[in-house]
Amino acid sequence: MTQLEAARKGIITEEMKLCADREGVTPEFVRSGIEEGTIVVVRNTDHRSIEPLAIGKGLRTKVNANIGTSKDHADLSLELEKVRISVAAGADTIMDLSTGGDIRSIRKAVIRESPLPVGTVPIYQAALRMLDAKKAISQMSADDLFDVIEENGEDGVDFITVHCGVTRGSVRAIEEQGRLLGIVSRGGSITANWMACNDRENPLYEEFDRLLEIAARYDMVLSLGDGLRPGCLADATDRGQVQELILLGELARRARAKDVQVMIEGPGHVPLKDIRANIQMQKALCNGAPFYVLGPLPTDIAPGYDHITSAIGGAIAGAAGADFLCYVTPSEHLRLPTLDDVREGIIAAKIAAHIADIAKGLPGAVERDSRMAACRKTFDWQGQIDASIDPDKTRRLLEKSESAKEEGCTMCGEFCAIRLGKKEAVK
Length: 427
Hints:
The chain is α/β, with parallel strands linked by helices.
């Protein structure tokens, strides 16, 4: 049975119990959320070396870290080090987005190394196989794509991004309205190009039931990808994006009818004033399915700082109901992320997720902030380090004031406001 099938039968699985314990909710809360489609439990039935992860309504906002090779940088050892850094920095999941080297071998190595659920985008591997065979990507068949998806399931991949809503109709909506930047999703662009070259419909849409059969076999969560997401503010919430989202809502309903768990991927670049409306629209059109957002980024002009940009957008999206944040690194739009980029991206996304959890009123979220305040009041430096979202950096930057006998840092020293505010006279 898939987790959704069990939930529908009123069965509380061991996975549901483990997730409930980690989230501080009851197993019944998790079970009913899975049944309603507002929660997914992520773990491939053949991937038993990890703990299951619950994502969705009423749970802690989760953070994903993207890793993966490119043709220019296909160093497996570097990617495995990114896995270790992602785990240490507190990511909840890892996505292997490799497009260079032996993708299946890389994926298997990542799965072996990661104690976290692993996601992929299978169309990357299917496209690369065409190129390796000296063929055009447009020569890829539906069988080629579904064979790779099956392979991902066999290897233990826990969730896959599939661009089922990139159809001839949704692409036509973009073409008729016009876009400044066009299609910026790799998977979306590959799919749109394939349809144009073959004068055929997207096989992931046309043969959606075939996809569901594979997903159910491994209880792989389908992350219905936003292949037509806006890549700049000027293209946000246009007809193509909305048309795709309407299709994803319909496909999510069909998936749940076949006991397949689903989450929905959300937009990239969105003006600040439109973020909340985008979340509300997704929740309405997709019957409350968990929402997985890239950022969103509320400005286009911050290359080198897009981890900050996305943290701003992510906090607002999370507070509005987004359940899962995909990190963005400082090197977004510029290069393959370095180890430092990965770490900074995760920390920025975790800050956004925590801010969102406070806004959602999740138990235990604001209490952590209160612990930090109490430690600051008593100059409990170790307590402040322990309560911080990045203890290593907090410890590294801390400078206690000698002039204030360590009752204050070197910024204010003996003029520390908290020190001066003590009832006893400061001499």
